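Backbone shapes recur. Consider a single case.
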Amino acid sequence: MSAQARDLVEYVNTLQGTNSNIDLTRGNTYPTTTLPFGMHTWTPQTGKNGDGWKYQYDKNSIRGFQQAHQCSSWTRDYCVFSLMPETGSLVVDEDARAAQFRHVNEIARPNYYAVKLDNGITTEMAPTERGAHLRFTFPDSKSSYLVLDGYTGDGQITIIPSEKKITGYVHNGQYLPNNFKSYFEIVFDRPFVAWGTWKKGDANPVASAETIEGKEVGAYIQFDAGEKVQAKVASSYISAGQASLTLKTELGAFSSLEDTKNAAAEVWNNHLGKILVEGETEDEKATFYSCFYRASLFPREFFEYDENSQPYYFSPYDGKVHKGYMYTDTGFWDTFRAQFPLNVLLYPKMHGQYMHALLDAYQQMGRLPSWSFPGESGSMIGNHAISLLTDAWAKGIHTFDPELALKAYQHEITTRGGGRLSDGRSEWQDYEQLGYVPYPEHPEATAKTLEYAYDDFCGYQLAKMTDHQDYEQQFAKYMYNYKNVYNPSTGFVQGKNRAGEWSSNFDPTEWGGPFTEGCAWHWEWSVFHDIQGLINLMGGDKNFTDKLDAVFTAPNTYKVGTYNRIIHEMREMAMINMGQYAHGNEPIEHMAYLYNYAGQPWQTQRHVRGIMSKLYDATENGYPGDEDEGQLSSWYVLSALGIYSVCPGTDQYVVGSPVFDKATITFENDKKFVIHAENNSHRDVYIQSATLNGNEYIHNYLTYGDITAGGLFDLNMSDQPNTTRGIEQDDRPFSLSK
């Protein structure tokens, strides 16, 4: 059955990747019920309030149904509250109220989540962008309670029985201004027969109380026994009045949960229908569309519409309300690599809004964002906002002031910031004077040097494209600094101290130290902008491709290094049993595409198909590591189409090997780009020949313009590599040194 012949939402399993824990990650996801890029999401909660693992597949009880925003188990959550239906006696404690369930009684789709708990209560949820429609069906003739839990921070709750309504706000999470609140309004379709409030730690709820304020507060309402209750809920970061307006505009037209569910299905089907795939198995379609769904959650909208349908937002950066658009909940260290290069293809309008919003954020907090959640968390290394801005400009998205972007980037790389990893560059003077970040004077120094050099290339590239020669000359001085941390005697990038001495007792399998969440095997390849320069350092194409081969054939062993313990990324690398290839974390995810730069494109074709086949599926075990804000999913979506953006900041997508016989991409301007792979199969992964719009095509890349102009990319596949195609210098993708 073709994807077109059925609802695409039926292919999506939102439980993909939920079988995760602190020791081993299969995605670190939760079943997210929302619309594409929705401001709020909803999910069942198996973990304790404040626990990063909010839903784990191996748990058998649910303690609430949450408004959620969490990007990752490692980042916790913010602006959360939950609703929990109960029958029997009223219980407000989160542990005591948890009810058992079985996965066979779950339905987990983007537009609809439902579960029948073992106590007989059924909960259903359907989303809008800033709200949700819920329904609680209680067993016949049994008591019917609903508990509202204000989670871990401050909150205020007001029960209005005469209007069958609850209003209030919550303030919980990190990196939030003091005046940051999520105002909510919940309207029910059945009358309350009793109600009250409670506070965590107090022995008993206060019956008939209609308002409460403080830390970790909650409320409860009771309905007639055996009721079927619908609840419409919406939230706003701006005001209680805006929450009420949003509820009316987003949910007012839906009289039943089925209406909301069907409307959400239409939104998702139209969204997923931007890429229609044909051929291959139903399981592979499920993997593709489950990944496409997950890639479509980030970045999240952080704006709302006023009474005149104009966008405005509460800024998490300066605590004020501004006109326009804002987006959040993404970490650029993860997502500059594939998630944003996918977005710029499919959603250029949204992408342009976000690029403008990046500079709004800079003006509101004095520096560019790097890891927004929803304000700046300063996590991870690098200054990758410039990658997003440069990549957008290179692909024709000119919605921002490039001079302001360059000014912001210059400020970013010449300040120490507040001590957080991506808050400025605490080592900028050493980096400028030495041409590298010295180790052990600075942790993660070699990884930082590599990523700074790439970011500086992006600054150079944006300046060059927009004719800002002073900035161009400034950033050009640093973009080859990657060479200064390559040790020709070991053949690896390596830590180097201030005196220019390489770190002693070097072992390329040792994690940490001068590297971030990896070892030298993984960071060797982080020269996105100048793979030819890296090839030259290694002594030519053969040495380079031999080293690429060695990644897959080396023992899958590791030394814990400065981590002093086994971290989950180490286990995940060993688990997939692909040598030193560690697809579960970002630094090496582009590596399989690098054969295209050294005259062996067929090796890329073989390896990327193997990675997709072995490491991804649509089940609870669906990912080989952290699904970081859509990055792992976006890697799969692009790779399954047969392309990947190795160097964001250029207009090129490097060619791989498509999974499907045919994929049709429909762009915002309704143009279509068709990727047709004749004779494609699990064995026939090699490109024998190709044409682009009827003309022979041998380059190992397509440009953004090639793709978005629409047309036909026709590939003839085989089970044998064509070792004479795509091997010339002109066929290789962009490199500075080329």
